[in-house]
Amino acid sequence: MSDLQTKASAVKSCVIELSKKTTKQKNDALLLIASELVNQLPFIVEENKKDIASGRENGFHESLIDRLALTEDRIHDMADALKQLIEINDPIGELIDSWERPNGLQIKQVRVPLGVVGMIYEARPNVTVDAASLCLKTGNAVLLRGSSSAIHSNTAIVKVIHDALKKSDLPLDSVHLVEDTSRETASQMFKMNDYLDVLIPRGGKKLIDTVVAQATVPVLETGAGNCHLFIDETAEARMAIDIAINAKTQRPSVCNSIETILVHKKWADKYLEELVLALKNSDVEIRADKKIYAKINGILAATELDWETEFLDKIVAIKIVESTEEAIEHINKYGSKHSESIISEDDSHVVEFMNTIDAAAVYHNSSTRFTDGFEFGFGAEIGISTQKLHARGPMGLPALTSTKYLLYGNGQIK
Amino acid sequence: MSDLQTKASAVKSCVIELSKKTTKQKNDALLLIASELVNQLPFIVEENKKDIASGRENGFHESLIDRLALTEDRIHDMADALKQLIEINDPIGELIDSWERPNGLQIKQVRVPLGVVGMIYEARPNVTVDAASLCLKTGNAVLLRGSSSAIHSNTAIVKVIHDALKKSDLPLDSVHLVEDTSRETASQMFKMNDYLDVLIPRGGKKLIDTVVAQATVPVLETGAGNCHLFIDETAEARMAIDIAINAKTQRPSVCNSIETILVHKKWADKYLEELVLALKNSDVEIRADKKIYAKINGILAATELDWETEFLDKIVAIKIVESTEEAIEHINKYGSKHSESIISEDDSHVVEFMNTIDAAAVYHNSSTRFTDGFEFGFGAEIGISTQKLHARGPMGLPALTSTKYLLYGNGQIK
To answer: Which residue numbers delimit the Aldehyde dehydrogenase domain (chains A, B) (predicted)?
Structure first.
């Protein structure tokens, strides 16, 4: 058997045992993992250095090296995150609903683990701990498949997790890492419907698109955010500009940052130059439609491609619109249904925008940067779903669960 | 543009308009469809005759001809089902949850339509009305793709639906039928991620497996039921036998009927012959393990394949087990995670069975035949999900919905 098959079988074999562990047993295991991460910190850092060295050899960009790096601080952060996860409510076993049918059948709907989660991710080795711990907390077994560039770090972390699990009540096989990082193995994993209940890809658009295109296992799609800010005619100038700067510059590389600002022409007549100046002062490159770049010096013309692009950088596209309808039309055409915001003091425009925009999160008078499991108060985040099935928007622990009906009778037949 | 692309574009174009229709507007449209079905009954029956004639020409089995046939009674039943659907609560717009964050951001989670549903189904033309009406009730547009054997009936029904929609407030393009029933067109439809939010296959295992294997659009899998009845040592004999007969024979062709009966050896010592006699009296063919067929005359030996097979017929496999654990092990090995039942008066065995069996519906002292949206009291049924994401078990209207977060602020930045 291949490494993949051996590990998939091992992970699957402990699903039932794991599903019956108590919250205390699961939390105790998480605490043991946190301790073991700190105990074995020098080992993890040493192994991580091997990945960094080969990254440098392969000419990785510094930003990629940074994502790969596991410093002492970062490992302590990982251990702290585990302790926070312990505090969060365990959704497993929750009674979602219960009722009685006229024939006397008692029906209960309860929350259960999904079973086996397949996690496919890129360079960041902290995802290894993150994914494993979220799965264990929700009673799921997990098959991890990280990238080859982080293989030493990931192998080390899983070794540490196994050392912790040996001391815990959870089965050792609850967590495994596929060490064969070839593309062929990944493609096989995408089609392991007999072993995996769900695949969660975490990484860039290309990875996610590949998984969606190839997988026969159901996928929880997280991903791209081509988000917009619409500044309506009646928007308060200071609020609109502050939110624009925050939503664009506070962390441009993440999915809930904005990529395009749509400005109502009447607001633009009064405040556009002020907005542009503020963006420039924050080192944001502006690509604007004709009405703007013709009027203001030093601004590039936006192309069709700019409306479609998630820049993930200090670049913003700006467009003048004539109405809320035009803003909505633009967003529903180019947006990725992630996070969209309207700044307005006009109730009817706000209602129209909130109801008509098709996105996971629609904001009024707020930055889009709050689309995040922690900011929503979930205490944990699996990712931000951009699909409509199962979970939409920031996903907390319940996104890693399914349900089951229990029916109690006394001889009912149909 | 191909027929498929033209219709997919048309259906997608009305998603936003449709999502904003009120419950009354949607119910009025359903009532118009019900009336129009009855008004145009002779036309539908005429068109249906063409499908029946070519079915006969192609040597269809009588049971298939029966599935294809639209009699006057069946068309009246379709109209009545529409009227019942009107009475069911509209889930769209439901406030699922709302809370305030420490920064003052108000978060509301509301229920919204999925968008466009792609429905792939086999011979039964009544699915055309059923699928269209469930989608319209939940504010979804729907692209229908039935089988070539029912093309005249399906085209006629969609014509009738369009005639009704013309008189309604809903967009005509909310419902379209792909008239090109080639395999190539179906394969294209499976990958229309830009147009379809979900694919729902309804039909045999082969159809569902094909959709799961080929689709890149998320699939709501419904399907196979290899269901079991476990008669424990302490089972009341009369109850166990009545339930066995009901779960096997009341409608053998459906997914929630049982295929295997597991009998505790101590119960078998006393009552097995009685059970076998009852099954034989109901014309059920028995395939049993060695311990049984060696003892009782006229029973076939079960093969490995019998434990795996969904007979969908008056055939049952019987196995003697030594314990609840052995029953659970057999079910978790061979079952399709659909519906499983234990007949027992021993509380600890019942708890063990209900908690350990991994299935959509787990029963105590009841027939499995109740796994059904109507029997659960949902008032409608999209199908019975055998997957763990999005929906599990009988799916009512909420399975055709997604959610959206609405966030209200007063200038919040991160």
So the answer is: 74-285
